[in-house]
Structure formats: C-alpha cells, structure tokens
Amino acid sequence: MKTHTLLMPLDMHLHLRDGVMLENVAPLSTFTFSGALVMPNLVPPVETLADVRAYKGRILAAAPNDFFEPYMTLFYKNYDKAFLESVADDILAIKLYPAGITTNSEGGVSSFDIEEMRPTLQAMSDLGIPLCVHGETDGFVMDREAEFMNIYELLATSFPELKIVMEHITTKEAVAMLDKFENLYATITVHHLLITLDDVVGGMMQPHLFCKPIAKRPEDLDALLSVALEAHPKVMFGSDSAPHPQHKKESCGCAAGVFTAPIALQLLCEIFDQFGKLSNLQAFVSDNAQNIYGICPEFKEVILEQRAFVVPDNYNGVVPMYAGKAIGWALQDVE
Ligand code: NCD
Ligand code: ZN
User: Closest Cα to residue 253, out of 103, 30, 86, 150?
Assistant: First the structure.
C-alpha cells in the first residue's frame, strides 16, 4: 500500500470557535496537526491580552491529550504600541478583516486610511508581528479579491518590513502578487485547490462549499495549484476550516464557511499525489510556515495511506466538505 508521512503539519488559518463547538472541533485538528494559527473572529472578537490567554486556555482544555500549539491572533484594531508590546509574546499575528465582509467581522476596518493605521502597522513592523489579511473589497463578489490587490500593494509598499499574509487566496491576481512584493505571503485552503464557482452553484446549490472568498474560475484554480504544488516558499497551507452548525448552512441565508479540518491532510495527499508532487507536500503543510513565521512546532508524525475513505456525514452536527463521498487517501497512524 502506498503511504506518505508528514512531519509537524501546520494549519495556518483555522476557526476553532468557542464553547460546545470548540469542544467538538478542536480535537479534530489537534489530533493530526502540530499547531494552527487560530482566528480571532469570535463574538465578541479576541481583542485583549486577557481574551488571548483565556481563549488559548479553553483551546488547550478542549483537547488535553494532544501535543498541539494554538498560535494565537488578535482581531485587528488601531492598537497602540504600548499595548502591542504587552501582547507580542502571546500572539503570532494580528488578523485584519474589512468590516462586515465575512462571518463575525462587523468590528473590522471600514476604511483603509493608511495614515490612521500607520501607528499600529509601524509598531507591528517594529515588533515583528505579522499582519494577516482577509483581502476582499465590498465590490461584486467575483471581483472582491482582485480589487483588493491595490490595498495589498499600498500596505506592502508603505510597510516594507511588515510581513503581510494574504489569507485564503483564490485568484490568479493574488498569486501574481507573491513575486511582486517581498513582504507578501499567502495561505491557500484545500477546498480552493479543488473547486471552482461551478462546484458551488453550477448545478444544485452546495451550501457546504459556500465560503468567503467564494471559489473562482478554472484559471484561478490553476494558478493556485501552480504555487501550492511547487510549494512556493511564500505559500503555506491554511485550511480556513470554518465550522457552522448544520442548520446555519442548510438554511435560508447560508453561513459562509467550509468545514475541512478532519479531512484536510487526506485531501492534500490526494491532490499532490494526483499531480505527482507528493514530495512537495511537506513544505506546503509545514516547512514553509515554520520559515515564514519562525516557529518550531512540537514533533508529530502523521502517516497517510492510499485507500478509499468515506467522509463521515457529519461530526456532531457539523457537515464536512465531501460528506458521504469517498476520497482516495486516509489516515493510517499518528505519533
Ligand atoms: C469564516 C468563518 O466562518 O469564520 N468563513 C469563511 O467563509 N471563510 C470567516 C473567514 O475566514 O472569512
Ligand atoms: Zn477564515
């Protein structure tokens, strides 16, 4: 049987939620991943040092038996330097959301006035705190990410020492930015390496494939695959696994988010194997993130094997991507 071993997999964009949902989904990530960058879009968002420490404690308590590092983030506000100094050791990055652009982002940034943001961004740059960005405008849904490239350019050139991560990129325009600006990096999800808008709404509408940013065109998928499969050194895996209760997805007014945490590594093996690029997967799921963020995760070895695996219909009321479908790779062992 064909197998593939991954060391210290990292998920550099993960929604773990809180309360009962956290207890449900956290073990599904902590089992196979060494660590994850945990998104701060709770209600209310993670905004203070006390919030960060308490949330980290709840995450660790939700999966007490696994070696797992929750890399914490703060929800971007125009914080002052003294505050940033006080939290720098407790966070790995700060996540910026344009106001209202996605789930629980109402308190985000409503205008990208660089002068208003300068003290915070300059302090982050000085302190070496990366800025993670949900890069979408409020324009036409298919154009939102491409329209945001001007803002990435402004941020990248105004703060050349600031590491800026374009989160969950979905377009060829975002891919092209990687080689234009030294301080721009990106995460890519597994679902955006598999689907286009056609899979979401081309036939019967598929709520469990609906997310922000929406999946785009075939040429965008090709561009994403080109950098992921080669494990471009500025690109990292970030699942953006975003669990919502089944009734919030299968409803009038479907919440945005694709739940992939428990099947992400299996799907990545399948994709990289299909393209004959399995040997690049280690860099995509761990080594690049270690280099970009300067982190040294706990040892974990995950062995996957090539055999049919039927994705469960749901995980305690959360429906995963490809529920009930067979995928080509499965977990064999985790140490
Ligand atoms: C995420 C969520 O549900 O928190 N949803 C999504 O569609 N990706 C938020 C986000 O990352 O945009
Ligand atoms: Zn997200």
Answer: 103
| pLDDT, tens digit (0-9, with 9 covering 90-100), for 177-229 | 999 999 999 999 999 999 999 999 999 999 999 999 999 999 999 999 999 99
Active site residue 179: no
Tally the domains of the chain.
1
Which residue in 183, 187, 83, 89 sits closest to 135, CA to CA? 187
243 CA distance to ligand 1 centroid (A)?
9
State the catalytic residue, choosing from 11, 51, 240, 287. 240
Does pTM surpass 0.90? yes
CA angle (297, 298, 299) in 5-degree steps: 115
Is 242's C-beta closer than 6 angstroms to any atom of ligand 1?
yes
Q: Which tokens is 165 given?
A: 């991560």
What whole-number distance in Å separates Cα of residue 315 and Cα of residue 158? 44
**Which residues, other chains included, contact 48 with Cβ-Cβ below 8 Å and sequence gap of 6+?**
none
CATH number, domain of 289, equals 3.20.20.140
Domain extent for 15: 3-331
